[in-house]
Amino acid sequence: MKKLAMAANRASKSATNVKKDVTYFSDDQEFETDLEDEIEVNNSRKSKPNKPTVERYFDACEALNTVPVAKFVRQFTKGHVDLKHYGIRDIGAQAIAMALEKDIVVTSLYLHDNGIGETGTIALSRMLRDNCFVLNFDISENKIGRLGTRAVGDMLLENASLQEVNLSGCGILGKDIKQFLKALSCNPYLKSLDFSYNDLGDEGAIHLGRALSKNQKIEFLDLSWNNIRVSGIEELAKGLATNKKLRQLELSWNCFLDEGANRLGSALLQNHCLKVLEVQSCGIHTAGVFKIADALKKNQSLEVLSIGKNPFQSSGAGSLLRGIRCNQTGALRELLLDDVVFDKECERELDALLQERPNFNCSWDVSIRGGHAINGKKKKPDAVEIFLTFVRTRGLRLIDLFRMLAKDGNSTTVTKNEFITGMKKLNAPLKDHQLRALFDVLDVNHDDRVEFYEFLSSRSHYLKAVRK
Protein backbone atom coordinates (compact mmCIF):
# COMPACT_ATOMS: atom_id res chain seq x y z
CA MET A 1 0.00 0.00 0.00
CA LYS A 2 2.88 2.36 0.85
CA LYS A 3 4.40 1.77 -2.57
CA LEU A 4 1.06 2.45 -4.25
CA ALA A 5 0.64 5.69 -2.28
CA MET A 6 4.16 6.84 -3.16
CA ALA A 7 3.55 6.07 -6.83
CA ALA A 8 0.28 7.99 -6.79
CA ASN A 9 2.00 10.93 -5.13
CA ARG A 10 4.75 10.97 -7.78
CA ALA A 11 2.14 10.78 -10.53
CA SER A 12 0.26 13.71 -9.00
CA LYS A 13 3.43 15.82 -8.82
CA SER A 14 4.29 14.90 -12.40
CA ALA A 15 0.84 15.94 -13.58
CA THR A 16 1.17 19.22 -11.70
CA ASN A 17 4.54 19.89 -13.33
CA VAL A 18 3.11 19.14 -16.76
CA LYS A 19 0.25 21.53 -16.08
CA LYS A 20 2.69 24.22 -14.99
CA ASP A 21 4.73 23.70 -18.13
CA VAL A 22 1.66 24.00 -20.31
CA THR A 23 0.53 27.17 -18.53
CA TYR A 24 3.99 28.72 -18.81
CA PHE A 25 4.19 27.88 -22.50
CA SER A 26 0.81 29.49 -23.10
CA ASP A 27 1.83 32.70 -21.32
CA ASP A 28 5.09 32.74 -23.19
CA GLN A 29 3.29 32.63 -26.52
CA GLU A 30 0.67 35.18 -25.55
CA PHE A 31 2.52 38.16 -27.06
CA GLU A 32 4.44 36.68 -29.92
CA THR A 33 6.11 39.38 -32.03
CA ASP A 34 6.69 39.33 -35.75
CA LEU A 35 10.04 41.05 -35.44
CA GLU A 36 11.92 39.61 -32.47
CA ASP A 37 11.99 36.47 -30.35
CA GLU A 38 9.11 36.28 -27.89
CA ILE A 39 11.71 36.03 -25.12
CA GLU A 40 12.77 39.62 -25.78
CA VAL A 41 9.20 40.87 -25.53
CA ASN A 42 8.52 39.01 -22.27
CA ASN A 43 11.80 40.22 -20.78
CA SER A 44 10.84 43.75 -21.80
CA ARG A 45 7.65 43.46 -19.77
CA LYS A 46 9.69 42.75 -16.66
CA SER A 47 12.74 44.94 -17.14
CA LYS A 48 11.66 48.20 -18.82
CA PRO A 49 11.93 51.11 -16.37
CA ASN A 50 8.75 52.84 -17.58
CA LYS A 51 6.62 49.81 -16.82
CA PRO A 52 3.17 51.47 -16.94
CA THR A 53 3.58 52.40 -20.62
CA VAL A 54 4.82 48.91 -21.48
CA GLU A 55 1.95 47.32 -19.62
CA ARG A 56 -0.55 49.60 -21.32
CA TYR A 57 0.92 48.66 -24.70
CA PHE A 58 0.74 44.91 -24.09
CA ASP A 59 -2.74 45.22 -22.61
CA ALA A 60 -3.85 47.21 -25.66
CA CYS A 61 -2.37 44.63 -28.04
CA GLU A 62 -4.13 41.86 -26.15
CA ALA A 63 -7.44 43.70 -26.17
CA LEU A 64 -7.15 44.49 -29.89
CA ASN A 65 -5.85 41.01 -30.71
CA THR A 66 -2.75 42.30 -32.49
CA VAL A 67 0.94 41.46 -32.34
CA PRO A 68 3.19 43.85 -30.34
CA VAL A 69 6.11 45.46 -32.15
CA ALA A 70 9.34 44.80 -30.27
CA LYS A 71 10.97 47.90 -31.77
CA PHE A 72 8.38 50.09 -30.07
CA VAL A 73 9.13 48.41 -26.74
CA ARG A 74 12.86 49.01 -27.23
CA GLN A 75 12.64 52.60 -28.42
CA PHE A 76 10.00 54.34 -26.35
CA THR A 77 12.21 54.67 -23.23
CA LYS A 78 14.71 56.61 -25.36
CA GLY A 79 12.06 59.18 -26.26
CA HIS A 80 12.30 58.55 -30.01
CA VAL A 81 9.94 56.04 -31.66
CA ASP A 82 10.67 55.43 -35.35
CA LEU A 83 8.41 52.81 -36.96
CA LYS A 84 8.66 53.87 -40.60
CA HIS A 85 7.47 51.22 -43.10
CA TYR A 86 6.39 48.78 -40.36
CA GLY A 87 2.87 48.14 -41.66
CA ILE A 88 1.20 48.50 -38.27
CA ARG A 89 -2.07 49.69 -39.88
CA ASP A 90 -5.03 51.07 -37.92
CA ILE A 91 -5.02 48.44 -35.21
CA GLY A 92 -1.33 48.93 -34.45
CA ALA A 93 -1.79 52.71 -34.37
CA GLN A 94 -4.65 52.29 -31.90
CA ALA A 95 -2.45 50.18 -29.62
CA ILE A 96 0.32 52.79 -29.69
CA ALA A 97 -2.19 55.56 -28.99
CA MET A 98 -3.51 53.70 -25.95
CA ALA A 99 0.03 53.12 -24.68
CA LEU A 100 1.17 56.73 -25.05
CA GLU A 101 -1.94 58.37 -23.67
CA LYS A 102 -0.28 59.05 -20.30
CA ASP A 103 3.36 58.63 -21.33
CA ILE A 104 5.83 61.37 -20.40
CA VAL A 105 8.94 60.00 -22.15
CA VAL A 106 8.29 59.88 -25.90
CA THR A 107 8.95 63.20 -27.66
CA SER A 108 9.14 62.00 -31.29
CA LEU A 109 6.72 59.63 -33.02
CA TYR A 110 7.46 58.70 -36.66
CA LEU A 111 4.87 56.49 -38.38
CA HIS A 112 5.70 57.13 -42.04
CA ASP A 113 4.15 54.66 -44.53
CA ASN A 114 2.32 52.26 -42.21
CA GLY A 115 -1.03 51.74 -43.92
CA ILE A 116 -2.77 53.86 -41.28
CA GLY A 117 -6.25 55.05 -42.22
CA GLU A 118 -8.98 57.15 -40.63
CA THR A 119 -9.50 54.94 -37.56
CA GLY A 120 -5.83 54.87 -36.58
CA THR A 121 -5.38 58.59 -37.23
CA ILE A 122 -8.38 59.46 -35.08
CA ALA A 123 -6.99 57.33 -32.23
CA LEU A 124 -3.57 58.97 -32.47
CA SER A 125 -5.15 62.44 -32.61
CA ARG A 126 -7.15 61.76 -29.46
CA MET A 127 -3.98 60.68 -27.70
CA LEU A 128 -2.06 63.78 -28.84
CA ARG A 129 -4.88 66.04 -27.74
CA ASP A 130 -4.08 65.16 -24.13
CA ASN A 131 -0.39 64.20 -24.37
CA CYS A 132 1.74 67.30 -23.86
CA PHE A 133 5.17 65.67 -24.24
CA VAL A 134 5.27 64.61 -27.91
CA LEU A 135 7.02 67.35 -29.93
CA ASN A 136 7.36 65.74 -33.37
CA PHE A 137 4.65 63.74 -35.14
CA ASP A 138 5.12 62.17 -38.59
CA ILE A 139 2.19 60.33 -40.17
CA SER A 140 3.23 60.93 -43.78
CA GLU A 141 2.43 58.52 -46.63
CA ASN A 142 -0.65 57.17 -44.84
CA LYS A 143 -4.12 57.57 -46.35
CA ILE A 144 -5.68 59.23 -43.33
CA GLY A 145 -8.89 60.25 -45.12
CA ARG A 146 -11.30 63.11 -44.54
CA LEU A 147 -12.14 62.20 -40.94
CA GLY A 148 -8.49 61.63 -40.08
CA THR A 149 -7.54 65.03 -41.50
CA ARG A 150 -10.22 66.76 -39.49
CA ALA A 151 -9.17 64.86 -36.37
CA VAL A 152 -5.61 66.17 -36.74
CA GLY A 153 -6.93 69.71 -37.19
CA ASP A 154 -9.13 69.40 -34.10
CA MET A 155 -6.20 68.00 -32.15
CA LEU A 156 -4.00 70.99 -33.02
CA LEU A 157 -6.63 73.28 -31.51
CA GLU A 158 -6.03 71.72 -28.09
CA ASN A 159 -2.51 70.26 -28.19
CA ALA A 160 0.03 72.20 -26.15
CA SER A 161 3.35 70.68 -27.22
CA LEU A 162 3.64 69.65 -30.89
CA GLN A 163 6.27 71.62 -32.80
CA GLU A 164 6.52 69.54 -36.00
CA VAL A 165 3.74 67.78 -37.91
CA ASN A 166 4.38 65.90 -41.17
CA LEU A 167 1.29 65.14 -43.28
CA SER A 168 3.10 64.65 -46.59
CA GLY A 169 1.51 62.26 -49.09
CA CYS A 170 -1.64 61.61 -47.06
CA GLY A 171 -4.13 62.20 -49.88
CA ILE A 172 -5.49 65.33 -48.18
CA LEU A 173 -7.96 67.49 -50.11
CA GLY A 174 -8.26 71.25 -49.76
CA LYS A 175 -11.88 71.11 -48.61
CA ASP A 176 -10.89 68.96 -45.62
CA ILE A 177 -8.44 71.36 -43.96
CA LYS A 178 -10.80 74.14 -42.87
CA GLN A 179 -10.12 73.14 -39.28
CA PHE A 180 -6.45 73.97 -39.76
CA LEU A 181 -7.45 77.61 -40.29
CA LYS A 182 -8.55 77.80 -36.65
CA ALA A 183 -5.65 75.69 -35.40
CA LEU A 184 -2.94 77.73 -37.13
CA SER A 185 -4.59 80.96 -36.08
CA CYS A 186 -4.41 80.19 -32.38
CA ASN A 187 -1.83 77.40 -31.85
CA PRO A 188 1.25 79.05 -30.29
CA TYR A 189 3.50 75.97 -30.37
CA LEU A 190 3.55 74.54 -33.93
CA LYS A 191 6.72 75.52 -35.83
CA SER A 192 6.84 73.13 -38.80
CA LEU A 193 4.02 71.83 -41.02
CA ASP A 194 4.58 69.61 -44.07
CA PHE A 195 1.62 69.31 -46.47
CA SER A 196 3.67 68.31 -49.54
CA TYR A 197 2.47 65.70 -52.06
CA ASN A 198 -1.23 66.16 -51.32
CA ASP A 199 -4.07 67.65 -53.37
CA LEU A 200 -4.85 70.84 -51.49
CA GLY A 201 -5.39 72.85 -54.67
CA ASP A 202 -6.49 76.48 -54.54
CA GLU A 203 -9.12 75.83 -51.86
CA GLY A 204 -6.57 74.47 -49.40
CA ALA A 205 -4.04 77.19 -50.25
CA ILE A 206 -6.66 79.86 -49.58
CA HIS A 207 -7.36 78.39 -46.12
CA LEU A 208 -3.65 78.22 -45.31
CA GLY A 209 -2.97 81.70 -46.65
CA ARG A 210 -5.59 83.17 -44.33
CA ALA A 211 -4.18 81.21 -41.43
CA LEU A 212 -0.67 82.38 -42.30
CA SER A 213 -1.68 86.01 -41.95
CA LYS A 214 -2.74 85.36 -38.35
CA ASN A 215 -0.13 82.79 -37.27
CA GLN A 216 3.04 84.28 -35.81
CA LYS A 217 4.73 81.05 -34.70
CA ILE A 218 5.15 78.64 -37.62
CA GLU A 219 8.63 78.75 -39.20
CA PHE A 220 8.51 76.04 -41.89
CA LEU A 221 5.67 75.35 -44.35
CA ASP A 222 5.93 72.87 -47.25
CA LEU A 223 3.15 73.04 -49.88
CA SER A 224 5.06 71.57 -52.83
CA TRP A 225 3.27 69.18 -55.23
CA ASN A 226 -0.26 70.35 -54.35
CA ASN A 227 -1.78 71.54 -57.64
CA ILE A 228 -1.92 75.14 -56.40
CA ARG A 229 -2.70 77.72 -59.06
CA VAL A 230 -3.07 81.50 -59.25
CA SER A 231 -5.97 82.09 -56.84
CA GLY A 232 -4.35 79.91 -54.19
CA ILE A 233 -0.97 81.63 -54.51
CA GLU A 234 -2.69 85.02 -54.35
CA GLU A 235 -4.06 84.25 -50.87
CA LEU A 236 -0.78 82.69 -49.74
CA ALA A 237 1.07 85.81 -50.90
CA LYS A 238 -1.28 88.00 -48.87
CA GLY A 239 -0.57 85.91 -45.80
CA LEU A 240 3.18 85.97 -46.47
CA ALA A 241 3.19 89.75 -46.82
CA THR A 242 1.96 90.26 -43.25
CA ASN A 243 3.52 87.21 -41.58
CA LYS A 244 6.39 87.98 -39.21
CA LYS A 245 7.68 84.52 -38.31
CA LEU A 246 7.80 82.14 -41.33
CA ARG A 247 11.40 81.27 -42.23
CA GLN A 248 11.01 78.73 -45.05
CA LEU A 249 8.25 78.33 -47.64
CA GLU A 250 8.32 75.53 -50.23
CA LEU A 251 5.98 75.90 -53.22
CA SER A 252 7.79 73.87 -55.89
CA TRP A 253 5.91 71.78 -58.47
CA ASN A 254 2.73 73.83 -58.45
CA CYS A 255 1.40 75.65 -61.51
CA PHE A 256 0.81 79.32 -60.68
CA LEU A 257 2.68 80.75 -63.71
CA ASP A 258 3.80 84.38 -64.09
CA GLU A 259 0.73 85.83 -62.39
CA GLY A 260 1.46 83.82 -59.25
CA ALA A 261 5.13 84.86 -59.41
CA ASN A 262 4.01 88.49 -59.57
CA ARG A 263 2.01 88.01 -56.37
CA LEU A 264 4.99 86.43 -54.63
CA GLY A 265 7.25 89.26 -55.80
CA SER A 266 4.90 91.81 -54.26
CA ALA A 267 4.82 89.82 -51.01
CA LEU A 268 8.63 89.73 -50.85
CA LEU A 269 8.68 93.52 -50.92
CA GLN A 270 6.63 93.60 -47.70
CA ASN A 271 7.91 90.49 -45.92
CA HIS A 272 10.87 90.90 -43.57
CA CYS A 273 11.35 87.40 -42.11
CA LEU A 274 11.37 84.74 -44.88
CA LYS A 275 14.81 83.13 -45.29
CA VAL A 276 14.23 80.34 -47.84
CA LEU A 277 11.83 80.28 -50.81
CA GLU A 278 11.53 77.30 -53.18
CA VAL A 279 9.50 77.75 -56.39
CA GLN A 280 10.98 75.18 -58.77
CA SER A 281 8.90 73.96 -61.73
CA CYS A 282 5.98 76.35 -61.27
CA GLY A 283 5.59 77.46 -64.90
CA ILE A 284 7.31 80.81 -64.29
CA HIS A 285 8.42 82.56 -67.48
CA THR A 286 10.68 85.57 -67.93
CA ALA A 287 7.99 88.14 -67.05
CA GLY A 288 7.38 86.51 -63.68
CA VAL A 289 11.10 86.27 -62.97
CA PHE A 290 11.48 90.00 -63.65
CA LYS A 291 8.96 90.74 -60.88
CA ILE A 292 10.83 88.55 -58.40
CA ALA A 293 14.13 90.15 -59.48
CA ASP A 294 12.66 93.58 -58.71
CA ALA A 295 11.75 92.35 -55.23
CA LEU A 296 15.31 91.10 -54.67
CA LYS A 297 16.57 94.67 -55.11
CA LYS A 298 14.87 95.66 -51.85
CA ASN A 299 14.22 92.51 -49.81
CA GLN A 300 16.49 92.30 -46.75
CA SER A 301 15.69 88.85 -45.32
CA LEU A 302 15.71 86.21 -48.10
CA GLU A 303 18.88 84.08 -48.06
CA VAL A 304 18.13 81.15 -50.39
CA LEU A 305 16.05 81.25 -53.58
CA SER A 306 15.44 78.03 -55.52
CA ILE A 307 13.75 78.95 -58.81
CA GLY A 308 15.15 76.46 -61.32
CA LYS A 309 13.27 74.08 -63.65
CA ASN A 310 11.09 76.98 -64.87
CA PRO A 311 10.74 77.98 -68.56
CA PHE A 312 12.89 81.12 -68.46
CA GLN A 313 16.41 81.29 -69.76
CA SER A 314 19.38 83.63 -69.78
CA SER A 315 17.51 86.94 -69.69
CA GLY A 316 15.57 85.90 -66.59
CA ALA A 317 18.68 84.55 -64.86
CA GLY A 318 20.55 87.76 -65.65
CA SER A 319 17.77 89.87 -64.15
CA LEU A 320 17.95 87.87 -60.91
CA LEU A 321 21.72 88.31 -60.66
CA ARG A 322 21.43 92.05 -61.34
CA GLY A 323 18.70 92.37 -58.73
CA ILE A 324 20.94 90.70 -56.15
CA ARG A 325 23.88 92.95 -57.04
CA CYS A 326 21.74 96.08 -56.72
CA ASN A 327 20.85 95.20 -53.14
CA GLN A 328 24.10 95.92 -51.31
CA THR A 329 22.55 95.19 -47.90
CA GLY A 330 20.56 92.13 -48.98
CA ALA A 331 21.01 88.75 -47.28
CA LEU A 332 20.73 86.46 -50.34
CA ARG A 333 23.64 84.02 -50.40
CA GLU A 334 22.41 81.20 -52.63
CA LEU A 335 20.59 81.07 -55.96
CA LEU A 336 19.56 77.68 -57.39
CA LEU A 337 18.81 77.77 -61.13
CA ASP A 338 18.62 74.09 -62.09
CA ASP A 339 18.02 73.48 -65.83
CA VAL A 340 18.57 77.16 -66.66
CA VAL A 341 21.01 78.06 -69.45
CA PHE A 342 23.58 80.84 -68.88
CA ASP A 343 24.88 83.01 -71.69
CA LYS A 344 28.02 85.17 -71.57
CA GLU A 345 26.17 88.11 -70.04
CA CYS A 346 24.94 85.90 -67.18
CA GLU A 347 28.47 84.69 -66.57
CA ARG A 348 29.75 88.26 -66.44
CA GLU A 349 27.03 89.21 -63.96
CA LEU A 350 27.86 86.19 -61.80
CA ASP A 351 31.60 86.89 -61.90
CA ALA A 352 30.98 90.48 -60.83
CA LEU A 353 28.70 89.31 -58.03
CA LEU A 354 31.28 86.79 -56.80
CA GLN A 355 33.92 89.51 -56.64
CA GLU A 356 31.65 91.51 -54.36
CA ARG A 357 30.46 88.47 -52.37
CA PRO A 358 33.03 85.66 -52.47
CA ASN A 359 30.83 83.27 -50.46
CA PHE A 360 27.81 83.61 -52.74
CA ASN A 361 26.63 80.26 -54.16
CA CYS A 362 24.99 79.73 -57.53
CA SER A 363 24.08 76.60 -59.49
CA TRP A 364 22.73 76.32 -63.04
CA ASP A 365 22.57 73.83 -65.89
CA VAL A 366 24.81 74.82 -68.80
CA SER A 367 26.63 77.85 -70.17
CA ILE A 368 26.74 78.82 -73.84
CA ARG A 369 30.19 79.90 -75.04
CA GLY A 370 30.94 80.35 -78.70
CA GLY A 371 27.99 78.20 -79.70
CA HIS A 372 29.06 75.31 -77.42
CA ALA A 373 27.23 74.14 -74.30
CA ILE A 374 29.41 73.77 -71.23
CA ASN A 375 28.14 72.21 -68.01
CA GLY A 376 27.31 74.72 -65.31
CA LYS A 377 29.22 74.73 -62.07
CA LYS A 378 28.04 74.83 -58.52
CA LYS A 379 30.11 77.30 -56.55
CA LYS A 380 30.13 76.82 -52.80
CA PRO A 381 32.69 76.45 -50.02
CA ASP A 382 34.33 73.03 -49.86
CA ALA A 383 33.38 72.65 -46.20
CA VAL A 384 29.67 73.00 -47.02
CA GLU A 385 29.88 70.34 -49.72
CA ILE A 386 31.61 67.93 -47.33
CA PHE A 387 29.07 68.70 -44.60
CA LEU A 388 26.09 67.97 -46.87
CA THR A 389 27.64 64.72 -48.06
CA PHE A 390 28.25 63.73 -44.44
CA VAL A 391 24.62 64.45 -43.48
CA ARG A 392 23.34 62.44 -46.44
CA THR A 393 25.57 59.40 -45.93
CA ARG A 394 24.77 59.23 -42.21
CA GLY A 395 21.05 59.25 -43.00
CA LEU A 396 20.43 62.15 -40.61
CA ARG A 397 17.65 64.71 -40.64
CA LEU A 398 18.82 68.23 -39.95
CA ILE A 399 16.65 68.51 -36.85
CA ASP A 400 18.16 65.30 -35.46
CA LEU A 401 21.68 66.56 -36.10
CA PHE A 402 20.82 69.90 -34.50
CA ARG A 403 19.64 68.14 -31.33
CA MET A 404 22.79 66.03 -31.25
CA LEU A 405 24.89 69.18 -31.36
CA ALA A 406 22.84 71.17 -28.84
CA LYS A 407 24.16 70.87 -25.30
CA ASP A 408 20.92 69.75 -23.62
CA GLY A 409 19.22 68.30 -26.71
CA ASN A 410 16.31 70.73 -26.50
CA SER A 411 18.11 74.04 -26.89
CA THR A 412 17.12 76.29 -29.78
CA THR A 413 20.71 77.43 -30.38
CA VAL A 414 24.13 75.83 -30.83
CA THR A 415 27.34 77.67 -29.92
CA LYS A 416 30.50 77.48 -32.00
CA ASN A 417 32.22 75.32 -29.39
CA GLU A 418 29.24 72.92 -29.21
CA PHE A 419 29.14 72.73 -33.00
CA ILE A 420 32.84 71.94 -33.43
CA THR A 421 32.95 69.50 -30.49
CA GLY A 422 29.77 67.73 -31.60
CA MET A 423 30.87 67.36 -35.22
CA LYS A 424 34.18 65.89 -34.06
CA LYS A 425 32.37 63.36 -31.88
CA LEU A 426 30.32 62.36 -34.92
CA ASN A 427 33.59 61.84 -36.83
CA ALA A 428 32.73 64.41 -39.48
CA PRO A 429 35.52 64.47 -42.13
CA LEU A 430 36.32 68.15 -41.54
CA LYS A 431 39.33 69.84 -40.01
CA ASP A 432 39.07 72.51 -37.31
CA HIS A 433 39.45 75.43 -39.71
CA GLN A 434 36.79 73.92 -42.00
CA LEU A 435 34.39 73.48 -39.08
CA ARG A 436 34.93 77.10 -38.07
CA ALA A 437 34.32 78.24 -41.65
CA LEU A 438 31.19 76.08 -41.87
CA PHE A 439 29.87 77.52 -38.61
CA ASP A 440 30.40 81.05 -39.93
CA VAL A 441 28.36 80.18 -43.04
CA LEU A 442 25.49 78.83 -40.92
CA ASP A 443 25.66 81.72 -38.46
CA VAL A 444 23.77 84.14 -40.67
CA ASN A 445 23.29 86.94 -38.12
CA HIS A 446 26.89 86.60 -36.82
CA ASP A 447 26.01 86.31 -33.13
CA ASP A 448 28.30 83.28 -32.56
CA ARG A 449 25.25 81.05 -32.20
CA VAL A 450 23.38 79.03 -34.81
CA GLU A 451 19.64 79.09 -34.29
CA PHE A 452 17.41 76.32 -35.60
CA TYR A 453 16.00 78.40 -38.46
CA GLU A 454 19.57 79.19 -39.58
CA PHE A 455 20.41 75.50 -39.50
CA LEU A 456 17.20 74.80 -41.40
CA SER A 457 18.19 77.15 -44.21
CA SER A 458 20.65 74.52 -45.44
CA ARG A 459 17.73 72.11 -45.94
CA SER A 460 17.44 73.09 -49.59
CA HIS A 461 21.02 71.88 -50.13
CA TYR A 462 20.25 68.71 -48.24
CA LEU A 463 17.12 67.92 -50.28
CA LYS A 464 18.98 68.59 -53.50
CA ALA A 465 21.79 66.25 -52.47
CA VAL A 466 19.34 63.51 -51.46
CA ARG A 467 17.47 63.71 -54.78
CA LYS A 468 20.73 63.21 -56.62
UniProtKB/TrEMBL annotation:
Domain of life, per lineage: Eukaryota
Database matches in Gene3D superfamilies: EF-hand, Ribonuclease Inhibitor
Positions of transmembrane segments: none
Entry-linked InterPro entries: EF-hand-dom_pair, EF_Hand_1_Ca_BS, EF_hand_dom, Leu-rich_rpt, LRR-containing, LRR_dom_sf
UniProt domain EF-hand: residue ranges: 393-429, 430-465
Protein name: Leucine-rich repeat-containing protein LOC400891-like
Family annotation (Pfam families): LRR_6
Keyword Nucleotidyltransferase attached: no
Keywords, in A-Z order: Calcium
Keyword Calcium: yes
A molecular-function term among this protein's GO annotations: calcium ion binding
PROSITE patterns recorded: EF_HAND_1, EF_HAND_2
